[in-house]
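Problem statement: downstream parser choked on a complex file, so we are re-checking the raw output for the histidyl-adenosine monophosphate run. The parser issue turned out to be on our end (a line-ending mismatch), but while we're here, posting the original submission so the record is complete.
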Amino acid sequence: MANKSKFQAIRGTRDLLPTETGLWNHVEETAHKVFATFGFGEIRPPIFEPTELFARAVGGDTDIVAKEMYTFDDRDDSSVSLRPEATASVCRAYIEHNMQQLPQPVKLYYMGPMFRRERPQKGRFRQFYQIGAEVLELLRPETPNQFATRHPSLAAPKDAATDAEVIEMVMTFFDRLQLPGLQLDINSIGHDGPDCRRSYIGKLYNELIKIKDHLGADSQRRIGTNPLRVLDSKVESEQPYIENLPHIEDHLCPDCTAHYAELQRQLQLRGVLHRKNWRLVRGLDYYMRTTFEITAKGLGSQNAVCGGGRYDGLVELLGGPRTKGIGFAIGEDRLILSLQEAGKGAPPQGRDVYIAWMGERAYATAVRAAKDLRTAGFSVELPPTELKFGKALERADKLGSRFALILGDNEVAEGSWTLKTLADGSQQKFTEPELLEFLRSCKRLSS
Ligand code: HAM
């Protein structure tokens, strides 16, 4: 129960305390490790960017940009916003740092806070954390144009392998964390051409007009602004009508159809289980072809733990060269919640060694021993004032220490130190080098 004080964390934001940050760090370290095995390097873009960057990339009509950004005027009166997501920033950085000159594709990942002024609820925060990755690849002039409608695209199936590998990477990451009950949904929303998505949207619009009276206010508004988003509706009474709408898969152009088929084959090749979901359209404007979402258990209505997709053309839209892109972002808060619900809590926060010391000589040795043990990588608690051994052992226990090192003046004089295992109360005597070796072997066994 929180204590009332004059100041409290703002609604939708929160403190992550040491009881939880152990798990956060474990998740982030796992991401660093897994992503490195797929050849990704870390990028740390700024927390705020020009508002225009997000408006262009994510789309001015999306909920994120229209309603949810934290925007303010900088001192030069330019409008800046706290980042609601990081794909736009990564594309901006790709252009700004001429990354098209690096060996392609460029594979980047990031982690950090994002900000959206949404209605807070379980799994939905105003400051939340994402772990995301993007693969960007310059479209060389001789490569067939895959996002214009004019040319047949030989590149489509090849790109599907990249999509599948990116999805495989997220699933490997979740697997490493032993997150149970995941569901991967995939879809293709084609490309923005008259023979593909645009023709589908035309048909969808006509059908939506016919069922308009059965839809709620939000969906009715979306018929005019972004008909695809109606498919995203969770409103119960609308479902029977939406379920009967035409499927985009039946209206994709041949290239996008080939790409989608190849994506499924590539996922199969990698043993990645998935479900086709024709209603998965995503709430950001930059997507084309592949979209995907992963849901997890124990999260209630906010159960999407990862979302992503392909966004060829976004870099160009932001003023860069013609570039292909695919990526995802994991909602770290939701991932942590789901891990906790599955009983995969934080690794123990206790100390390896609590040093119970008594006497001036013993204290000098205890200070040195603490330094040596910490250098060797053990976590050590050294009480700053002398405590009776009984009291010190009580504290060691409360802190969840594995061992207590007992150092009195006698032990120091004899050069023989007593190590107590707190779980069973057993004691052993060691010389200093023996002690270090023993602790190392214990650590090896438990890791
Ligand atoms: P997004 O679907 O908006 O996609 O967000 C990705 C994930 O961030 C969601 O699935 C969810 O887990 C988490 N998330 C979003 N909003 C909140 C919130 N208010 N509170 C807690 N978690 C939240 C993107 O952001 C794209 N940039 C993903 C991407 C990268 N696509 C291509 N590359």
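For whoever reads this later: The longest strand covers residues 127-138.
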